[in-house]
Structure formats: structure tokens, C-alpha cells
């Protein structure tokens, strides 16, 4: 393995699975196959887009069975997106494959992924105007949390990945929401759980923006 750049490591989102042997093995195999971290980052957005497409498709789907299958499949693409988010960092830092444009590829696919999944979730199954509005609100606040983090990096020693609704929390909530909604729809034909899920994500993301802004203000005042 290559020596880790301490400064880069401090700027990375803390992910426990990054230290697992299987993660290092997967990253090593991708590097050996001449796959670049930037390509893996783009793949994360592709997986997220597939999940978003399934969420929107469930809105127009006439077969209840297919609706359930689509909702169950979405979490698979969410986890593949998160897996790519972890592997691209491993490849870039631990295996010395970082590029000058790496930060661009690290950030933009994430913003596309968050926005696509959360906005699409508002249209899932029987989503009405309220659900659609909450989906767009959740997507907007999610992008805002990333903006505050990235802006704050200019003034803080390390990036602020605090919650209560950071990326991993948003994706966990959406994963649970999709599975719970699939179960609810199978038994009752309704999808109100998704409505609640999006409300939690939107509110939690808004609070995350406030928390990060407070941290940033304190850091700026102390410097």
C-alpha cells in the first residue's frame, strides 16, 4: 500500500467499513484492473440514478407486485452507491491513485446522487403533492448540507461531517423507508411511510445545515 497523506485522510468522511479487509481487497482489485477512482465515483451516481428511476417507475406502475419489487430493489442501488463512495476514496488515498480533478469527481456525483434519490422518492408509489414537495425539500437541504461542509473547509482544520442527517444517515433513512413502504404497500396498498421518511430526512437535513453553520461560525470567530 501507499503511504497515506494525513491531510487528505483528515478531510475524508469517517467510514468504519473502510478498515475492513474485504474493502481493501476490493479496492486493490479495482486498481489492478486499471479502474480509476474517478470512474468509481461516476459509477456511484449511475447506481443512484438507477434507484431514482425505480422510485419514479413505481409511481406509474400498475402491478402491485412490481411496485413492491421496485421498492425493495432501490436499497440495493443505494448500498452500491455508498460502496462506490467508500472505494473511490480507498483507491485514491491508500493506493496513491488520486488525481488533480479527484475532488470534483468526489463531490459532483454525490450531489447528483443525493438529489436524484430524494427528489424521486417524493414521486414513489402513490406520492401526492405533499410527498413530492417533501422529496424536493429533502433533496434541496441535502445539497445545502454539502455546500456548508465544503464552504466550511476553507476555515476549519477538517471538514464537518456532523449530523443529525449526514449522507450516511440520509441513505440509511431512505433505505429503511423504502423497505417499510414496500411492506406497508403489500398489506394495505398505501405508502404513507415514505411520506414520513421524507419529512424526517428534510427536517434532519435542515437541522444539519444549522448545526454545521454554528460550528463554522464558532470556528471563524475564534480564528
Explain this structure:
α5 runs antiparallel to α6 and α6 runs parallel beside α8. The protein starts with 5 loop residues before the first helix and ends with a helix. It is built from 8 helices and no strands. By secondary structure, the chain is mostly helical.
List keywords for this structure.
223 residues; mainly alpha; Four Helix Bundle (Hemerythrin (Met), subunit A); 8 helices; 75% helix; globular; disordered N terminus
Topology:
Elements: H1 6-10, H2 21-32, H3 37-60, H4 64-93, H5 102-121, H6 129-152, H7 167-188, H8 192-222
CATH topology: Four Helix Bundle (Hemerythrin (Met), subunit A)
The helix-and-strand class reads: mainly alpha
What integer is the average pLDDT?
90
Radius of gyration computed on alpha carbons: 18 Å
- Cα distance, first to last residue? 37 Å
Characterize the overall form.
Answer: globular
Number of helices: 8
- Low-pLDDT runs of 5+ residues are 1-10
Binned strand content: under 5%
Output the helix-strand order.
HHHHHHHH
CATH architecture: Up-down Bundle
Kindly report the name of the CATH homologous superfamily.
CDP-alcohol phosphotransferase transmembrane (TM) domain
Number of domains: 1
User: What proportion of the residues is helical, as a percent range?
Assistant: over 70%
Please write the CATH class name: Mainly Alpha
**Beta-strand segment tally:** 0
